[in-house]
Amino acid sequence: xxxxxxxxxxxxxxxxxxxxxxxxxxxxxxxxxxxxxxxxxxxxxxxxxxxxxxxxxxxxxxxxxxxxxxxxxxxxxxxxxxxxxxxxxxxxxxxxxxxxxxxxxxxxxxxxxxxxxxxxxxxxxxxxxxxxxxxxxxxxxxxxxxxxxxxxxxxxxxxxxxxxxxxxxxxxxxxxxxxxxxxxxxxxxxxxxxxxxxxxxxxxxxxxxxxxxxxxxxxxxxxxxxxxxxxxxxxxxxxxxxxxxxxxxxxxxxxxxxxxxxxxxxxxxxxxxxxxxxxxxxxxxxxxxxxxx
Length: 293
Fold this sequence. Notes:
The chain is mainly alpha-helical. The protein has helices at 3-35, 43-61, 65-95, 104-122, 147-169, 171-179, 183-188, 193-218, 230-240, 245-265, 271-285, and strands at 137-140, 143-146. Strands 1-2 form a two-stranded antiparallel sheet. The mean pLDDT is 86.
């Protein structure tokens, strides 16, 4: 087989694996922005916070990143509930929950505060973890599946499908779907919309912490790395349809393949432009997203 065809197949496979991970990165935004109408611009830095906590747990206690993701889950859930409560008391309460842009400066400030804390605690050097599977690949003929991409992809897709089923089959999930549309009606049914949004926002940050653990398997990170993913997570959310979790998965796959193809055949420096390019095209020609809401 011609080497260029080998390169093409491997680029597509790598894009699919990367896209699976991008789905987890964007899942939290699909919940907070797509379902709750909260523009959490600090979501990517929460992912980096999760990555650094994973590195610390691995460095101090030798804990595998996958196990670290489980250990961090309650912390990020509680952190999300606290952040939402502050956001609600200071911004959303006065706006009646109707202005998604109100309090955007709060999340910008949160982004820079967490970034500065990480710099003060860990410096600006890149951090990485070494596992038994980091440099191992599964070779299927001419296609190579590196475990550092395969494991995050499988776990990320599994988490997304699990959360999707949780939203579809539980009362809480239906309440989350309804809370952004008509919180007053939900309140008349005896449900506290503030609590529902708080737990849902906590879930979105829990997914961010998980994504940070997976990111640490894939590559090294530094405190400002979160800025690189702001365009990406919002592009996936909008491309897949606001709050559409299966749309998020397929949009992430599309973006992952587009980025790896661009990196392989045009150069890595062009890859970051793909996210913003797809976001602008989607907003211009199909603002409801490819898969709709």
